[in-house]
Structure formats: C-alpha cells, structure tokens
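dude i think i finally got it to work??
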Amino acid sequence: MPKTAPALFRPSSDGAAAGLMTSLAGLLREWLPRQRWFAGKDRPVTDLGLLSMTELYPGCLHLLVHTGQPGHTGPFGVSSPGGVHPAGDCYQLLLGLREHPAPRLSRALLGQAQEGPLAGLTVYDALYDPRSAQLLLERLRHPGAAGPLHFEADPTMRIPAGLAPRLLDAEQSNSSLVYGDEYILKVFRRIQPGVNPDLEVPGALAGQGCGRVPAPVAWFRTTQPFAATLGVLQPFLPDASDGWTLALGALAAGHDFTAQAHELGQATAEVHLALASAFPAGAHDENGRTAAAMTERLDAAARCVPALRPFVPGLRTAFRAVLSCDVGPPAQRVHGDLHLGQVLRAGREWFVIDFEGEPSRPLAERCGTQSPVRDIAGMLRSFDYAARQRRPWRPEWARRCREAYCAGYAGRAGWDPRKKHGLLRAYETDRAVYEVLYEARHRPAWLPVPMAAIERLAVRGD
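look at this
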C-alpha cells in the first residue's frame, strides 16, 4: 500500500502547501518541460507554486500548480493561500505516490522525493496508473464533490462500471483516457478560469440536435483558486479514423480524396450553422480588429522565428487587404483550431472534435466570435500539410481537396468561401504564421512546411 500522511494534505493549510512543494518542486522543474502539453519547453521553470491540492484517495493527489518562466507571460495572475502569483500558467496534475512503483509505471515516473513530507516516496503521473484511471471514472459515475473538485454528469446517461482504461499515446496538448472503447475522458492540462469551450460547445450543439459532435456525458471542474473546467467525458468512436490518417493513407496509395473532402466541407458547414443557432452572433464590421490582431501575431512570431522576418512586409499586405475586402459572413462561435486531426470519420460520416481552440490563447478569446472563414482556412492549410508529407510534393492533390471542400461547404452553408478571396487569404496567412511559430518551438524538422506557404503567400499573394 502507498505510504501516505493524509493529515499533511489539506488544501486550506498554508503549511501543507509549503511542505508539499518542498518535496515536489525539484521533480516538477525537471519533469514539466519534458511534457508534450507544457507550453514553455524552451525556458527554465523559475517560479513554482501550489494553487490547489486535493487527495482524491490515499496515494493520489490532484494538484493545480502555477509556473512562471523568464520571458513568458501567461494569461493571468492568480491568488492562492500562499499569496498572489504573477502572470504565468496553471497546470493540472494527478500525481501518484508509492514506495515501490510497479515496472509498468516506469514511463510515468517523476522521481523519488528526497525531502519534505513525501521523502522516500516515488512520484509518478497517476493517469498512467490503471487503478487511478478507474477511480477517476468512478468519481464521474457518482457525481459529487471532493474538496474544491466537483464531478458532474448528464442525468440521462448511465456510465457502466468496470470499463478498462488506457491512456492515449498520441501527441496532444492535453491527456486523454479511453474507457473500454466506449468513452474518452479529456483531462485538460493548461487550466484557465471559466468554462472550457470543449464542454460548452458540444453541450450547446447537442441541444441543437447536431449529430456531428459527440455530446458531453460527464465532466469535472474546480472552484479553487478559481472556477474552471478540468475534464470532459464523451462517447468514444472506436472504429473511427482521424482525417489526417485517412488523407496520408490516400496519398500513399495514390488515391483521390476529393469525395471525402467534399463531405467534410458539408459537415463543417452543418457545424457552423448549428453554432450560429446556439450562440449569439458577433458584429459584421470586425475586419479592422481582425487585421490588427493578425498583424500583432505576425510581429510577435517574427521576433521569435528569424526565418520569418524577410517575409513580414509581404504578409502584412494580406492583413491590410482585410480592411477593404468583403466583410464576409457575420462573426460567430467557431471551432477555432480546425484541421484534419480534429475530425473523425466513422463509416461514411464525419465528426468534429476538440473544440478547445488553441490552448495557448486566452480563454476569453477562444470563446469569442470569429469569422467562420478562420475554420475553413485551417482545413485548407491542413490539406497542404498532408500533401507535403509525400515526396515529390503533390500540389495538385491539395488543390483538388481545397476545391472539393469549399464546394461542399458552399452547398450547405449557402455562401462560397472561394468568393471571399481577400478574407480567405488573410486567414490562411494568419494560420501559416501560427504554424511557423508552433513548428519552431515543438517540431523544428517540420518548419519547412509552413515556411513554403509563407513564401507563397508573401511573394505571390496566392
């Protein structure tokens, strides 16, 4: 049995927080930057604080920790019993404690605590532990509270017991547990105050009768040190394949993908129409604010990625053109980060998932209204990404997919994104700038893919 001292672990105790961080701080400073979902991999963790702690059961702690790094300003400053932390990031951790961890947990280890109340115990990521994962599902099956944590569920849904858990290995900005091929639990890692759109939007779309998005079954949230969504349980589609895998398979086999792209355009339009019905519309005249935000993101990215700087003047022309082009459809709630990896095909149907948006952006921005052209541009960029995975590059494959996707969208939405050329070019440019910054930070070997689009968009204006 794990060696624990429950009396030490009380969220309301300042001394408990300080003591716990004495045990964990060194381990977390080494472990956090190695995680796929950690935002500041290229900078040391200089500030580390405990915001909230709950013992879910003996040997498993739920933590919200604040991290600060030089040159990095997160979305907010937060207060805790230990004082006010400056702007930075908040991360959700579920940590297991054992004297002698099982060999199967070797991938999950943070290390052994050397001092403080956890001295001598081995600390690990509890999501890798099947027992911890099963107990987390039990919390969702039986709604209630554990300290500041609240576990809630759709009362019309019955979640069966005994579903075997497995942690998905795919690179993600969060962590996902699949239970018995029936449900998937997304555990958010980077936490911001408010209702996460990956809970809010699918719930609203379910109310609209939109079958393109799996509806939330259960979720959990916290009230301390602020109200925030921590995780969402949804139906799992075991026989589905994501659009990225399907597109690469078609390319490898030399198959056409236009029929699938056309149907995907139709599915995107259906989701947009349901979103427009579920949420209030934005203003028609947001182009000035949009152009300013795009230019600001370009300048920030150019400061971080030197290869981008020679193209900045040409890219700015795409954003300035927004001020004089057709305003396009009214702003509304959108997906915010749509690409081939965010759609699933089960049988002959497309489903849209992961409505969280870009986790690096403030939650208020991700929950705001934007042009639906943003989602369309994200998918068009994704076709280009897929085409460039093969040698030689297949530009005609991406072009045919673009045409088919836009045609499918136009057939359902009632307006054609291809006729919003200036607006579409601006959003594609903005997306490519985001991709350059992302690849430079996380996958430098992929940087030539968005840089090829940057050169095209800046020099030729296509």
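Residues 1-13, 79-85 have pLDDT under 50 and may be disordered.
im so relieved honestly
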